[in-house]
């Protein structure tokens, strides 16, 4: 019997420290006044009363403003519904193109995936800003911006869930001599339907949130009103709008929760 | 099956002649899905019908889009590349500072919001606060904050920080509650204090998840920081709105290319790190 062998300490214990060091270094650079965003408390210490005043103003919403918010609120919902519908109907076939089991052709698959990765990397409000300049102010550029944003999200999530599904059914289809289109229509579609409905609901929630602010760049909905009250510094009216967004989003959460529970 | 269970087969075969002609049961009418489809159709038709859009504008749209894409990308104005990159760097800084501030504040709060670490009223209040923050778009938060810090990148960073607290706090307490209770009990049984329970019971198993949430939120903040520029707090969004208003499409093209390249680059790096964190390092 020799002495008890103490195992060597695991290697790589420096890694968390190195990672922390890198994070602290980047943070220091971004906070510095020369290279970064000049983080400082002087503005906060000078103007905090201003902010507190605004927040106090927001605590008493101007409810007489409510009638004027109804039409923009409806427009926001309309934009979200139309964009979700168009986006999900376009997204379903594209997700089949982007998933390996339903599209064995690697060239078209990579093509669709790359295109949608690019589409997804542009934020919705930037689409809206550019589209407003192209097609004019109103709900149309907002809907188009949301559709672009939806395509990216739906195709990514649905194609991933197609790839996670069991491929046995699809193999049976091709063994029985079905064409790709027949297999996808008869076998892949019913299998992915619950996931597809689920993601469509999720995208609808995202759309309602997003469409409340798209108007800030002129794309219709509640955002137009937010922009108007913000230029007049009417924080009491702004807080009414925020309150409406809150209620809308919370109701929507409950609604989609109920539907999801039915689906499963 | 027939090899292992012959009796069952003979039994059914014997019964078959006596049984009446099989009547296939009526197909169930899928009332619920039908009703759902009908409801969706009604809502959709109502929306299409009531929204104020001159649909005729859609006819000219494809040609318009091709024309504008040509204006943007046929001859991009590369002279502005330097400024575009500088503004993008500023947006990324906003995102970074927002993420770091958000994680510093949300990390302790997510413990207070997790079951087993704080009294129920604190937990409920914090969870409600997280839900409220998540429901307000970051651009609206920025509008409130700019009354204190003005139209500076700091406003953008603070707005992103506030919004990050909402999501990071929620993911955080969910992940703490998902930790295997065994090690926690072991530390408690050995007489560990709460901070020791957190350090030796929660942290080792929750760390990869936390780190990957932080990285993921950074990816979200990079996109959001470009958007925040639209209200004038600086960064690439600010530059994009001005050049769109001047209708200098060749510069807008450069800006869009820069946004796409930087976002995809950051997503790729952060995604690679997240995969290493959650799936472990190289196989031994």
Automatic annotation (TrEMBL), chain A:
Annotated membrane topology: Multi-pass membrane protein
Keyword Membrane: yes
PANTHER family to which the protein is assigned, alphabetical: ABC TRANSPORT SYSTEM PERMEASE PROTEIN P69 (PTHR30043:SF1), PHOSPHONATES TRANSPORT SYSTEM PERMEASE PROTEIN (PTHR30043)
Annotated localization: Cell membrane
Protein name: Phosphonate ABC transporter, inner membrane subunit
Membrane-spanning intervals of the chain: 17-41, 77-99, 125-149, 232-252
Keywords for this protein: Cell membrane, Membrane, Transmembrane, Transmembrane helix, Transport
GO-annotated molecular function: ABC-type phosphonate transporter activity
Primary localization class, coarse: membrane
Automatic annotation (TrEMBL), chain B:
GO cellular component: plasma membrane
Start and end residues of each ABC transmembrane type-1 domain: 88-270
Record flagged with keyword Nucleotide-binding: no
Membrane topology: Multi-pass membrane protein
Compartment(s) where it occurs, according to its Swiss-Prot or TrEMBL record: Cell membrane
Keywords: Cell membrane, Membrane, Transmembrane, Transmembrane helix, Transport
Stretches that traverse the bilayer: 31-51, 94-118, 139-162, 249-269
Gene Ontology molecular-function annotations: ABC-type phosphonate transporter activity
Residue ranges, annotated region (Disordered): 1-24
One family name in Pfam for this protein: BPD_transp_1
Presence of the UniProt keyword NAD in the record: no
Family: Belongs to the binding-protein-dependent transport system permease family.
Protein name: Alkylphosphonate ABC transporter permease
């Amino acid at each position: 019997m020799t002495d008890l062998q103490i195992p060597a300490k695991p290697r790589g214990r420096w890694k968390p420290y190195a990672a922390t060091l890198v994070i602290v270094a980047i943070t220091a650079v971004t906070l510095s006044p020369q290279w970064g965003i000049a983080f400082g408390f002087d503005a906060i210490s000078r103007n905090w009363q201003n902010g507190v005043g605004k927040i106090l103003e927001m605590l008493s919403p101007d409810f007489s403003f409510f009638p004027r918010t109804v039409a923009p609120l409806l427009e926001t919902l309309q934009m979200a519904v139309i964009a979700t519908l168009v986006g999900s109907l376009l997204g379903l076939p594209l997700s089949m193109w982007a998933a390996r089991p339903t599209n064995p052709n690697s060239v078209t698959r990579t093509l669709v995936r790359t295109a949608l990765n690019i589409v997804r990397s542009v934020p919705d409000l930037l689409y809206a800003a550019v589209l407003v300049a192209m097609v004019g102010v109103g709900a149309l550029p907002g809907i188009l911006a949301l559709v672009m944003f939806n395509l990216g999200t739906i195709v990514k999530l649905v194609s991933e869930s197609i790839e996670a599904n069991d491929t046995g059914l699809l193999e049976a289809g091709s063994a029985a001599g079905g064409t790709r289109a027949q297999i996808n229509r008869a076998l892949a579609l019913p299998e992915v339907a619950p996931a597809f409905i689920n993601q469509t609901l999720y995208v609808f929630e995202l759309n309602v949130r997003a469409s409340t602010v798209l108007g800030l760049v002129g794309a219709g909905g509640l955002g137009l009103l937010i922009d108007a009250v913000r230029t007049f510094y009417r924080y009491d009216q702004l807080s009414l709008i925020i309150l409406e967004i809150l209620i809308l989003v919370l109701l929507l959460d409950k609604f989609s929760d109920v539907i999801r529970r039915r689906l499963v | 099956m027939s090899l292992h269970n012959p009796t069952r087969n003979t039994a059914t075969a014997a019964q078959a002649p006596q049984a009446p002609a099989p009547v296939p049961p009526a197909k169930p009418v899928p009332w619920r899905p039908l009703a759902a489809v009908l409801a969706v159709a009604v809502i959709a038709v109502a929306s299409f019908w009531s929204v104020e859009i001159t649909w005729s504008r859609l006819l000219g749209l494809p040609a318009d889009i091709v024309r504008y894409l040509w204006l943007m990308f046929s001859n991009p104005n590369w002279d502005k590349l330097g400024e575009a990159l500088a503004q993008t760097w500023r947006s990324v800084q906003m995102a970074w500072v927002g993420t770091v501030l958000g994680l510093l504040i949300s990390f302790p709060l997510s413990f207070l919001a997790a079951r087993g670490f704080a009294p129920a009223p604190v937990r409920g209040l914090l969870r409600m606060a997280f839900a409220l923050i998540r429901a307000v778009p970051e651009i609206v938060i920025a509008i409130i904050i700019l009354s204190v810090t003005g139209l500076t990148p700091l406003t953008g960073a603070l707005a992103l920080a506030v919004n990050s607290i909402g999501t990071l706090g929620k993911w955080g307490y969910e992940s703490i509650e998902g930790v295997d209770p065994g090690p926690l009990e072991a530390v408690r049984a050995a007489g560990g204090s709460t901070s020791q329970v957190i350090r030796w019971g929660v942290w080792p198993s929750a760390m990869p998840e936390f780190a990957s949430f932080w990285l993921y939120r950074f990816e979200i903040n990079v996109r959001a920081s470009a958007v925040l520029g639209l209200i004038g707090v600086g960064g690439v969004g600010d530059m994009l709105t001005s050049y769109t208003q001047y209708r200098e499409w060749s510069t807008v093209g450069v800006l869009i290319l820069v946004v796409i390249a930087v976002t995809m680059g950051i997503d790729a790096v952060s995604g690679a790190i997240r995969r290493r964190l959650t799936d472990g390092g190289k196989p031994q």
